[in-house]
Amino acid sequence: MADQGKSRRLRAVFKNAIVWGVAWGGLGTVVASLMRLNDNIPLLNAILDGIGMGIRIGIVGALTGAAFSTFISVAYRGKRLAEISAARFGIGGAILAGVFVPTWMQTMNLLSGSGMVPWNLITDDIVFSTVFGGITAAGTMLLAQRDEAKNPVTVQELLDRMERESLGTGSAPDYQTTERSRSMQD
């Protein structure tokens, strides 16, 4: 039973990492392309450069999303999504991302043997990661709350439902599914 809980949490962390990676990759592509256009780079080259930066930013976003998901799985266990403030959740995501990204960058640089990166060279990374983290955390919470308004659940019940749907297990239908089926037949 405990192994099922661990595997469910790992799947939820992985899914959240994918969502954050895609969101950060998209935001990063747009911002990087606009910055390149501002540098008077031709449109096609600016877009290609933006896509390349977006991919790198998306990878960092996925790592940050995994860290954030791990944090929220502990901090918000057992709470209903309606009880969680999207603004506060966004602020938490911004703070975590703003701390995690430069810490991760400095750690990786130290492990490679290159020493500390001067902080003035990563201040823009701190700003962008803070903004992207806040937007992504608040956005994902707003989407989850919108879905929960239709189908009230706790965070744990949502994780259970995500697991059933992703694994395609033949569990008995829940009340909401039965009600939806009836309303579609009427």
Structural commentary:
With 186 residues, the protein is an all-alpha fold. The protein has one domain (2-168). It contains 6 helices and no strands. It has helices spanning 2-38, 43-75, 86-111, 123-150, 155-167, 175-185. The longest helix has 37 residues, at 2-38. It is globular and about 50 Å long. The model is unreliable at 177-186 (pLDDT under 50).
Quick overview of this protein structure:
By secondary structure, the protein is an all-alpha fold. It contains 6 helices and no strands.
Structural class by helix and strand composition = mainly alpha
- Helical content (DSSP H or I, runs of 4+): over 70%
Proportion of strand residues: under 5%
Largest sheet: none
Following the backbone from N to C, one meets helices and strands in this order, namely HHHHHH
User: Could you tell me the mean pLDDT?
Assistant: 84
Tally of discrete structural domains: 1
Task: Please tell me what the overall shape is.
Answer: globular
Ranges with pLDDT <50 over ≥5 residues?
177-186
Oligomer: single chain
Radius of gyration: 20 Å
Q: Please count the helical segments.
A: 6
Distance between the termini: 40 Å
Give the beta-strand count.
0
Keywords:
186 residues; disordered C terminus
Give the topology, please:
Elements: H1 2-38, H2 43-75, H3 86-111, H4 123-150, H5 155-167, H6 175-185
